[in-house]
Amino acid sequence: MGAGGRVFLVALATASLTATIGITSSTAGIWEKILGGRASYRQICAASCVISGLVSSTGIDAIVTVVGPVLDACYPGAIVITFFYCFCRHNNSRRNLFALKCAMIAAAVMGGAALLNVYAGLFHLDLPRFASFYAALPLSASSLAWIPVSIAAYAVAWLGAAHRSGEVNVDGLEIE
Q1: What is the pLDDT of residues 111-120, one digit of tens each?
Q2: Nearest CA to 117 among 129, 101, 105?
Q3: Domain spans of the chain, in order of start
């Protein structure tokens, strides 16, 4: 390994250590507030490091197998809001924002359904009705069932808000 490779390794190790310290301190700060002082910051940092060490000893394949579906469940909502602001950023009417909120909720529900479907297979859970329901959804074989459901939720909410009298309450998801 040349000098450039050594410099790269030192930079990579420093970046990894910085990220680890930041994540550990953030985690400890959050849990210290949640626990209301029942555990000290130092105890939580130590516990976080021990748990991280145990999890990392399982290997990257096991971590990705268990955590990957959780990330996949989070993507649909993020993609919906990204597309919305790419194509509708200048139309922030209450009606449009209400439709966005409905589409994001639909995407989150479908992401959760995809997560349940993956975990049912991963942990050998017997959910035949759910499995057949999920398999019947369009694009479910590609884990993209959230796309038509989100589009339909957006369209129904947008059209439904137009036919109601009054304003759309975006905060409470209610049509007054």
Answers
A1: 999 999 888 8
A2: 129
A3: 1-57, 59-176
